[in-house]
Design a protein that fits this description.
Distance between the termini of chain B: 59 Å
Largest sheet of chain B: 2 strands, antiparallel
Largest sheet of chain A: 2 strands, antiparallel
Oligomer: heterodimer
Number of strands of chain A: 8
Distance between the termini of chain A: 32 Å
Structural class of chain A: mainly alpha
Number of helices of chain B: 14
Number of strands of chain B: 4
Mean pLDDT of chain B: 81
Strand order of the largest sheet of chain B: 1-2
Structural class of chain B: mainly alpha
Radius of gyration of chain A: 23 Å
Largest interface: A-B, 74 and 66 residues
Low-confidence stretches of chain A: 423-432
Number of domains of chain B: 1
Radius of gyration of chain B: 20 Å
Helix content of chain A: 55-70%
Order of helices and strands of chain A: HHHHEEHHHHEEEHEHHHEEHH
Strand content of chain A: 5-15%
């Protein structure tokens, strides 16, 4: 399940952000009538088509998999949290309908309507993410029900949907999706520009993609700060695990690096900035931060949470640096940095956004363990009683790996066919 | 307590729509596999272009069914996902393979061999998935899935016994023939080329034969059910004769229309044939969701959830049905195959 989600999150993130790029490019085309932008829109639309289809397929699998792997979870949580799933279904429906119109309707409907379908695809993609993350937020901070003799009673789906975790999780993930997709796309075009520096289409593509990266990379740390304050307030144990904070203390330090050890209850080799964690969590360097020692040992999440958190922040900082550089030059010279060094840095940053999404997802999901619904239901109690679970797990892993390879192969072919490049000979193109 | 019945009805309606739209989609893939003769290449192209704009929207109906089921009737969903874990997982594999192979084929513009390989995956998955869907629906009817309503719907039967039976498999092949029939009927409308139309007319008639054969087999196999409830319901009460008669009349009508090459209104008749069959199947189950232990009453979510769900559905329908209408109007009003081919050489 985790692995499916880990794959889905990437396809989904691209599926959210890619339509936006495509629509921006089309809007510029409609305004300027410069044919480059039409080429670019069509190229991006193809990428969008592939990724949304795969995202949709893996999303379908997930909607079943919830039941197949976690029937216990669905039986109890279904009435409480089925609502956002239903809404997500509708958002996805709208996305599918208008994607069909968008991709196949170039010659069949008026340009303004065509653009409008693209806007609906982009909006519906973002909206379905909002609903799915609402479910996850509820798992982190469940409410809208009471438990009586093991049953969920007094259910109120509306209260469940508006948990205090929803806002920051949604913002953090949406910004991350735009950021990660933006940098990935920017890197592909930067790579082509390194080899064909004069190509106008790719220069424009890079500019649009960076226009998405720069603001999101700068906003993300602020959203992240909001997120960590909420975690400090509602899930102090997760915060402690993220920061390898074993002792409850005032003036808690911010630990950078370090190798946390649950048995020794310390994290040696860390650089400590005194009082910083207290400040980040509570806005006061002298505030008390609860350590893991305050909580029963069996509820501690694994140490990997600390590493994942550190790596996520590292990826975010690197992207922030790149964005500050690009943004600074853009403001002063009205264009992106022209140097090869900048292009190389962009290419090398390609995986950072997606890596940050994965690490962040590990922080929130593994950080919630051993619970599937925080402090309500343990993961072990929700899993299906079916024996031999390893078989479906291995199969679904293989399917996802196969899908990823195929997606990359198809997209590589698309990039090679990108507008304005010398076209490969059709006959010798088959690599297998 | 009409609310659970309303939601159950809505689930059935969504399932009917999925059978018609998604079914045609699967069926089109079947005809990709059986594309033969001098026009095989063009038959495949026709299939690909016919489902291109609509297949994603068509398959969302399945997600609607699943989401409604697990929001409205959580125990039914959990019982089914445990008891039918294996066929469900296989069906998912089929859906994923089919969808991704279709996209990969369409967007892998250069490599001929790679493209062909994806085409094969798409075609085979299009055959296997409807069979699995039929097996699942058949197993739900068969009454071999047992759960204990007093012990949180703990599933009492095994992971293979409830569906490795004659009846579910006969339903599987019945579904396959039905979907293939429907797709052939729809595909006649996609082209204005008389030869291609003739190809799909033949295919529609052949698959209609399959529908009849497997309907008879399934009718006999339902007598072998664990309990007779379903077969009694299906063939034994006054209203079931109404559905039975309607299905026969419509099937006869569609066959005659095909025979006489009268294609006007053919799509509606073909769709109605599938809709009546699925509707009859669904209504024969009440008051059960998974006979004999899970009923609409005992599995329903609390009223507040159901009430919200109905409102959400109403709101969604207001927004989505016009969009859906627009989608089909843009792409399916008249034969588009030749026109689209001209514009994308």
């Amino acid at each position: 399940m985790g692995i499916s989600l880990g794959f889905h999150i990437i396809f989904a993130a691209i599926g959210i952000a890619m339509p936006l790029l495509m629509v921006i490019s089309e809007a510029i085309w409609l305004k300027t009538k410069a044919p480059h932008y039409l080429d670019l829109t069509k190229a991006w639309a193809k990428g969008t088509a592939v990724l949304i289809a795969i995202g949709a397929a893996s999303g379908t699998v997930l909607s079943f998999e919830l039941g197949l792997l976690f029937p216990g979870f669905m039986r109890h949580a279904g009435p409480v949290i089925g609502m956002p799933f239903s809404l997500e279904g509708f958002a996805f429906f709208a996305e599918a309908i208008f994607l069909g119109i968008y991709l196949f309707g170039w010659n069949r409907i008026r340009p303004a309507l065509h653009l409008a379908s693209g806007v609906i695809v982009a909006a519906a993609g973002a909206l379905s993410a909002v609903f799915v993350i609402t479910v996850n937020a509820w798992m982190n901070h469940p409410r809208g029900f009471r438990i009586e003799e093991g049953r969920f009673v007094d259910i109120d789906p509306w209260v469940a949907m508006t948990t205090p975790f929803a806002l920051h999780q949604i913002l953090h993930m949406l910004v991350a999706a735009y950021l990660a997709t933006g940098i990935l796309v920017a890197a592909i075009h930067a790579w082509i520009l390194l080899r064909h520096p004069e190509n106008v289409v790719h220069r424009k593509a890079l500019a649009i993609a960076m226009a998405m990266v720069i603001p999101t990379a700068i906003v993300q740390p602020l959203v992240g700060d909001l997120a960590s304050r909420q975690v400090a307030k509602y899930q102090p144990l997760k915060l402690a695990a993220m920061e390898a904070q074993y002792k409850t203390e005032a003036r808690a330090p911010l630990r950078i690096g370090g190798i946390p050890n649950h048995d020794e209850r310390e994290a040696p080799f860390a650089i400590e900035i005194p009082g910083m964690l207290s400040f980040l969590a509570w806005g006061d360097t002298d505030a008390v931060v609860q350590g893991m020692e305050d909580f029963p040992r069996e509820n501690w999440p694994p140490v990997v949470v600390h590493y994942a958190f550190q790596l996520m922040v590292l990826c975010g900082i690197l992207l922030l640096l790149l964005s500050v550089w690009a943004g600074w030059v853009w403001v002063r010279k009205k264009s992106l940095p022209q140097s090869r060094a900048f292009l190389w840095c962009t290419v090398l940053s390609a995986p950072l956004g997606m890596a940050a999404i994965e690490f962040g997802w590990i922080v929130t999901e593994v950080g919630r363990q051993p619970w599937v619904i925080y402090e309500v239901m343990r993961t072990a109690d929700a899993v299906t009683p079916m024996p031999g679970l390893i078989v479906p797990l291995v199969v679904s892993c293989m399917v996802y790996i196969g899908l990823s390879i195929a997606v990359i192969a198809v997209l590589r072919r698309q990039v090679q066919l990108a507008p304005g490049l010398p076209q490969p000979e059709p006959a010798e193109a088959d690599p297998s | 307590m009409t609310l659970p019945w309303l939601v159950a009805g809505l689930i059935l309606v969504s399932l009917i729509i999925y059978s018609v739209l998604g079914g045609a989609d699967f069926g089109a893939g079947v005809w990709d596999l059986f594309a033969t003769g001098p026009r095989a290449r063009r038959q495949r192209d026709l299939v690909a272009q016919a489902i291109g704009p609509v297949w994603e929207a068509n398959h969302v109906w399945l997600i609607v069914v699943v989401v409604l089921l697990f929001t409205g009737f959580p125990p039914a969903f959990s019982v089914l996902s445990i008891a039918l874990h294996v066929p469900l997982a296989l069906m998912l594999l089929g859906i994923v393979a089919r969808a991704s192979a279709y996209v990969f084929r369409n967007y892998h513009e250069v490599g001929d061999r790679v493209q062909q390989r994806w085409g094969n995956v798409f075609a085979y998955a299009s055959v296997a998935t409807p069979i699995l869907l039929g097996i699942i629906l058949g197993a739900i009817s068969d009454g071999a899935i047992r759960a204990d309503p007093d012990d949180e719907f703990r599933v009492l039967t095994g992971f293979f016994a409830p569906w490795l039976r004659v009846f579910p498999f006969s339903v599987g092949f019945f579904a396959l023939s039905l979907f293939a029939f429907l797709a052939a009927v729809f595909l006649i409308h996609e082209s204005s080329d008389p030869e291609l139309r003739e190809d799909f007319r033949t295919r529609a008639l052949i698959s209609q034969g399959g529908v009849v054969v497997f309907a008879v087999i399934a009718a006999f196999a339902s007598q072998l059910g664990e309990r007779e409830h379903f077969s009694e319901r299906l063939l034994g009460s006054w209203w079931s004769w109404f559905f039975f008669a309607a299905a026969c009349v419509i099937a006869l009508l569609s066959t005659l229309l095909l025979w006489g090459r009268r294609y006007r209104g053919m799509r509606i008749v073909g769709g109605a044939q599938v809709a009546v069959i699925v509707a009859g199947w669904g209504i024969a189950h009440q008051p059960y969701l998974v006979a004999p232990d899970v009923t609409i009453e005992n599995a329903a979510a609390p009223p507040i959830t159901l009430e919200l769900l109905v409102w959400v559905l109403a709101g969604g329908a207001i927004l989505l049905l016009p969009s859906l209408y627009y989608l089909f109007r843009v792409f399916k009003r008249q034969p588009a195959f030749e026109e689209l081919r001209r514009k994308t050489p």
